[in-house]
Task: structure prediction
Amino acid sequence: MEDKETLLEVVNRTIVNYLSEEGADDSIALTQESDLEREFGIDSTEMICIALDIEKELGVSLKGVKFSKIKTPNDLVNAVFSCRSGTAPA
Amino acid sequence: MTRRAAITGIGVVLPETQTVAELWSRQMSGVSPIRPLSDRLRGSVVDEGGVSAAIAPRLSRKLDSFTRYALVAVQRAIDHAGLDMERLDRERCGVFVGNCFGGWRFTEAELRHLHREGPRAVSPFQATSWFPAAPQGQITISHGVKGFSKTFMADRASSLLSVAAAARMIEQGKLDAAIAGGVESTNTDFIRTAIEKLADEGDPSSPEGGFTVSEGAVFLILEEVESAARRGATVYAVIGGFAMSNAPCEADRYGADPEPMIRAMRRALGNRRPTIVMPDACGLGGPDRAEDRALSEVCGGSSLAIPKQKYGHSFGAEGAVDIAYASLMLERQQKLPAPARTEAALSTPGQAVAQAQRTRIDSILINARAAGGAASSLLLTARSL
Result:
């Protein structure tokens, strides 16, 4: 199972790819505590799109995760880690 | 003081037509974008290239094509009207949209994902992209509009209804301005199959005429007429009246009873006789013969104009196409070339004849029908009346 640092790389890359107009965009300044809604305007439906991309990339199911509580990339990493390890979703 | 609603701006996204100038000149051109779309259907389609470039990719991928058409046409209407949305009281501005089918381009692709890969392959934007009020939602979000807004689904009468409703809200003092019109995307397998069935019903039509289909978006800016004049806006037309009537028939047919049309036209006109009538002219023998009789009874002697024949029937956008043309004729006091055929042949498209003719035009009556037997009429008048 990947460690949290690796998961953070995957999550950040997925978010940047989603936000980029064409391919990866170095100008998107994303940190692990970035507020995804307030700083990047990511709404609830877009969060689901990002979650589905992460599911495909990592082969993990995020079913049961309360996405209303996901605010930052770190929150997403913790949710993925919890689902991977079989503990209660965030 | 009686309030009246004026049309002060026009925005279009139609096949081979992106500007008001192109909309007008299309009628003097011998060229039509209509071509065979299938073995059983002829019509015209929007070139998506110009539309896609006008919307940010992150937003565009959440939307069906019909919402994209609407957003671009609305911005063009706002620009055409010279309306400063930042200075407008947007709590007293509403959005009124006519649409018939919703968003099937997006939906057909997602249905394929569903059946091939399962439910988790369906885009999360499926629900918000398909539903017919999606353009209303996106327009209000994009422009911060917070006044009463509505979407009307009434087949080819949808955007006569939407514009009439917007005008009524302005006349009643509940709004000062409105963005009103209609939109449709028909270039999809599902919609085309449904329209082929509609076009097959009734009498056989000639290969060159019959029921043709189109798509696109036309939106108008409506303002209270005195307010519009105070800010120096061009008043293209004033909404003079609207009425709708019904004589139920089969739900998937256009009525062959002239009475609903006679009632709607008389109530919209009051005691006026229109200078020009823009008929529904659906392209099916029985319904068109019924409209011939209604026109003879109510408006005998009025000239005809059928500019939408250059494109085909655009369903939710159709009424707004006619309103745009009527507004231009009223403001320019120029009559578009009449159909070259007789009034008895509403089914067959006429060829453009000569140029627009300068003539006094006081009012224009527009007809539109809905499957199931509904008939509606909207009257536009020149500002001077």
